């Protein structure tokens, strides 16, 4: 069964039939073609939708930050993970969790900036956070969103 995504507060909803996309609730048929599919098929299509949306959003948003930071990742991929929003490998490959498509685009921007900054600072040291803050002074608000709603987004049973 696909569980509801709704939640109280922040303009979100408790409506059991709504799903998150870019931080806002939608009925399933506003996001994907829903008829005449069964639940397993719906799950598969919804997951595919989030995957391709995440890929598209990241590709669109990352270029400006790359220019600002003067970095270029070797590759960018969209992954499935229940623990990580993004990652940066020592070979300069960035990965982003497809579930980010459920979060507001500003939160995706934060994860993009965070991972891009790892191309310059591999650790979470002071200079790393200074760099993140120089591109995104309000990054703590985005971290708070992930702290508050992240577990919910991660727990939607699509895998
Ligand atoms: Zn990090």
Characterise this structure.
The structure is a single chain. By secondary structure, the chain is α+β, with helices and mostly antiparallel strands. The protein folds into 2 domains: 1-32, no CATH class; 52-154, 2-Layer Sandwich (Zincin-like), CATH 3.30.2010. It contains 5 helices and 5 strands; from the N terminus they run E-E-H-H-E-E-E-H-H-H. It starts with 17 loop residues before the first strand and ends with a helix. Bound molecules: zinc ion (ZN). It holds the Pfam family YgjP-like. Residues 30-148 form the YgjP-like metallopeptidase domain.
Query: What is the CATH C level class of the largest domain, in words?
Result: Alpha Beta
Shape: elongated
Assess the beta-strand content as a share of residues: 5-15%
End-to-end Cα distance, whole Å, is 12 Å
| CATH structural fold name of the largest domain | Zincin-like
Taking pLDDT < 50 over at least 5 consecutive residues as the criterion, the unreliable ranges are: 6-12
In N-to-C order, the SSE pattern is EEHHEEEHHH
Give me the oligomer status.
single chain
Question: What is Rg?
Answer: 16 Å
- Overall SS class: alpha+beta
Question: Could you tell me the mean pLDDT?
Answer: 89
- The CATH superfamily name of the largest domain is Metalloproteases ("zincins"), catalytic domain
* Total of DSSP H or I helical runs spanning 4+ residues: 5
Instruction: Give the neighbour order of strands across the main sheet.
Output: 3-5-4
InterPro entries: UTP_pyrophosphatase-like (IPR053136), YgjP-like_metallopeptidase (IPR002725)
Domain YgjP-like metallopeptidase: 30-148
């Amino acid at each position: 069964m696909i569980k509801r995504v709704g939640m109280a507060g922040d303009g979100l909803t408790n409506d059991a039939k709504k799903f998150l996309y870019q931080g806002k609730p939608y009925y399933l048929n506003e996001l994907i073609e829903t008829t005449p599919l069964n639940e397993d098929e719906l799950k598969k299509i919804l997951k595919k939708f989030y995957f391709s949306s995440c890929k598209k959003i990241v590709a669109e948003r990352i270029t400006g930050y790359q220019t600002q930071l003067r970095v270029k990742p070797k590759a960018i991929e969209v992954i499935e993970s229940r623990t990580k929003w993004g990652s940066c490998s020592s070979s300069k490959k960035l990965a982003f969790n497809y579930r980010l498509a459920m979060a507001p685009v500003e939160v995706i921007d934060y994860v993009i900036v965070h991972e891009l900054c790892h191309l310059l600072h591999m650790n979470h040291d002071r200079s790393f956070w200074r760099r993140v803050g120089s591109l995104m002074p309000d990054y703590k608000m985005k971290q708070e969103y992930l702290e508050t709603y992240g577990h919910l987004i991660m727990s939607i049973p699509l895998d």
